Amino acid sequence: MDYILQRVAGLARMSMMDGILGYNQVAVHPGDQNKTTFTTPWGTFMYARIPFILINAGETFKREMDIAFMG
């Protein structure tokens, strides 16, 4: 993540908020959404976007950013 932030330093159209907001935009594959199911008193829900609590969420976001800034 530090490498990516160093590469975008000085760009006029990139901010730290873009990275923070982008983290919550990585979609969970529809076939895997049932693996993120949780139950509350108001019903059963599943995530459509990767939540912070998943073990590989950080690595998945890093891989997405590597692909986005490649080349």
Summarize the structure.
Helices cover 39% and strands 8% of the residues. The protein has 71 residues and is mainly alpha-helical. It is elongated.
3D architecture notes:
With 71 residues, the chain is mainly α. It has a domain at 24-71. Helices cover 39% and strands 8% of the residues. It is built from three helices and two strands; from the N terminus they run ααββα. The chain has helices at 2-8, 16-23, 57-69, and strands spanning 38-40, 43-45. A two-stranded antiparallel sheet has the order 1-2. A hairpin with a 2-residue loop joins β1 and β2. The protein is elongated and about 45 Å long. The protein starts with a helix and ends with a helix. The mean pLDDT is 76.
What structural class do you assign from the helix and strand content? mainly alpha
Strand content: 5-15%
**Fraction in helix:** 25-40%
List the secondary-structure elements in sequence, H or E: HHEEH
Mean pLDDT: 76
**Poorly predicted segments:** none
Give the beta-strand count.
2
Biggest sheet, open or closed, and with what strands and sense?
Answer: 2 strands, antiparallel
Radius of gyration: 15 Å
Biggest sheet strand line-up: 1-2
**Total helix count?**
3
Q: Please give the alpha-carbon distance between the first and last residues.
A: 16 Å
Overall geometric form: elongated
Topology:
Elements: H1 2-8, H2 16-23, E1 38-40, E2 43-45, H3 57-69
Antiparallel strand pairs: 1-2
What are the salient characteristics of this protein?
single chain; 71 residues; mainly alpha; two-stranded antiparallel ribbon; 3 helices; 39% helix; elongated
